[in-house]
Each structure stands twice: as C-alpha cells, then as structure tokens.
Automatic annotation (TrEMBL):
Highest taxon of the lineage: Bacteria
Originating species: Lentzea sokolovensis
InterPro entries per the UniProt record, alphabetical: DHS-like_NAD/FAD-binding_dom, NAD-dep_sirtuin_deacylases, Sirtuin_cat_small_dom_sf, Ssirtuin_cat_dom
The UniProt record lists the keyword Nuclease: no
Domain Deacetylase sirtuin-type: 1-264
Entry protein name: Deacetylase sirtuin-type domain-containing protein
Source species taxonomy: Bacteria, Bacillati, Actinomycetota, Actinomycetes, Pseudonocardiales
Stretches assigned to coiled coil: none
UniProt keyword list: Metal-binding, NAD, Transferase, Zinc
C-alpha cells in the first residue's frame, strides 16, 4: 500500500485534518438522531442538525443552553476515541505535527502532544470577549459547567449567561466566526509548525473538503509544491482528487478514514 510505504520513507509526517475526520469519529454536525436526543426543544422548533446553529442568532439563555450542551458533548468528553487513537498508533514514533480546522481538541485528547497541534480556527476549550476588549482569552470549561448547572431541558435555556471578565460584555467561544476572532493563543503552535516543516515531509490530509479550503486543503497543496521531496496522501470520501501538477507525489484515496485505518 502506498501510504504504508511512504510512511516508512518519510522523514516527518504532517497530519492535516478537516471536519470529515471528526465526523468519521462520531462527531458529525449533520447527525439528526443525536441532535434530537440532545436538543429536543430546538428539534421541536424545526431544527434538525448542529450545523444549522453555527452563526444562528438566539436569545442569550437559549444560546448558552445550546452551546453549553454542545461543547460539553463535543469538547470535554474523557473517553478515548478509536479513530484518533488508531491514527496516533499509525504515526507511531515518527516525527510529526498536526494542522487541523477542527475545534474539538480530539487530537490532544487522544495521545497527540498538545504543543504539536495547530488549530488556526480556534478551540472550544477557550472563550473570548465578543468586542473584543482584550487580546486575552480564557479556559471555557468553567463557563460551560456553570451554564450546564442551570440548564433546563424542558426550555432548552440556561439561566447562567457568561460575561467578559474584563468589560462585562458578551462573550463567545474562541473560534473563528468573524473579524472579532482572537487567534493569539494558537499563534505559537503555528510558528512551531513553520519552523518544523522541511523537505521529506509526508502530508496525510483527512476529511478536508471545500467548506473552508483556505484553511487546510489549499495550504497543504501549496506546501507540497514548495518542497521537492514532499508527498501528499489525500483521504476523502467525496473530494479526494489531487492536483495534476503534483504528479506521482500525490495520491488520492477516496474512502472513509475508518476504512484506511481498518476500523469497523
């Protein structure tokens, strides 16, 4: 298999992951059954999947009712995930780094070193002022737990709405949804990745489609073009095609990552 041979020949491995990886791991924003189970009130209002809530304006109590349940489910679960742990086993002792648009912290929660993971789109594990009045961001676990403590499943609302510790204004999770986004917390990892990169890198891109191609897909292609001995393996169920100009240095795998990892 090309992937196994290229792994053996690689000086270093870059895992580049989009939403398709977490969906394969069971964190699918289009999962209608899980949505109805977790958010019965919103389901009754005619919504059916989490992706519909991205950027949707809601009254503050309903907003934090939804996001506290969602983030607790997606970001703070303690159980290991078989897809991510198998991927970590595949990388093994090879020198590696991770670039991901996912904000769920699943790499660090499943054996990848946190200082080797760059999440340029942010992380549900932090929150920020919406203004923002400061470049500072804070761990989100306390505000999520506080909102959950007063969450009413019958109304879908939380009585606890967090505010900025500095100005008392509105806050939200520290994720890239607009110009107010504060990426400073993640910048050091991006710098470490740029310093780490070099020729002989094997890029394994997983589940990165065209929703945000400028975050993973396009940069990865440009990276491989810029390094004469770099290689790309693109794993994707729907958009596995690779640029023709990369020639034999790029391989397309049109499959779910669970098939590649030989998982049930």
């Amino acid at each position: 298999m090309t992937l196994e041979r290229w792994l053996d020949e690689a000086d270093r491995v870059l895992i580049a992951a989009g939403a398709g990886l977490s969906a394969a791991a069971g964190y699918d924003y289009s999962d209608t059954e899980r949505f109805a189970e977790l958010f019965p009130v919103l389901h009754e209002k005619g919504l059916w999947a989490r992706y519909q809530l991205i950027g949707l304006p809601l009254p503050p109590r309903l907003l934090w009712g939804y996001w506290s349940v969602h983030v607790d489910d997606i970001r703070f679960g303690a159980e290991p995930n078989p897809v991510y742990t198998r991927l970590r086993d595949l990388v093994g002792t090879r020198d590696h780094f991770v670039l991901t648009s996912n904000v769920d912290g699943l790499f660090a929660r499943n054996g990848f070193a946190e200082d080797r993971v760059w999440t340029p789109q942010g992380d549900y594990g932090r929150y920020q002022c919406e203004t923002p009045c400061t470049r500072e961001t804070w761990p989100s676990r306390p505000i999520v737990d506080a909102a959950l403590a007063t969450y009413d499943v019958l109304t879908g609302e939380s009585e606890t709405v967090p505010v900025c510790p500095r100005c008392g204004g509105e806050v939200f999770l520290n994720v890239h949804k607009g110009p107010e986004y504060v990426p400073d917390h993640y910048a050091p990892a991006g710098k470490r990745l740029r310093e780490w990169l070099g020729d002989g890198v094997l890029v394994i891109e997983i589940g990165a489609g065209f929703s945000t191609p400028t975050v993973i897909r396009r940069p990865v292609e440009s990276l491989v073009r810029s390094l004469p001995s770099a290689r790309l393996v693109r794993v994707n169920t729907a958009h596995a095609e690779v640029p023709a100009d990369l020639g034999e240095r790029a391989v397309s795998v049109r499959a779910d990552i669970t098939e590649v990892l030989d998982l049930p």
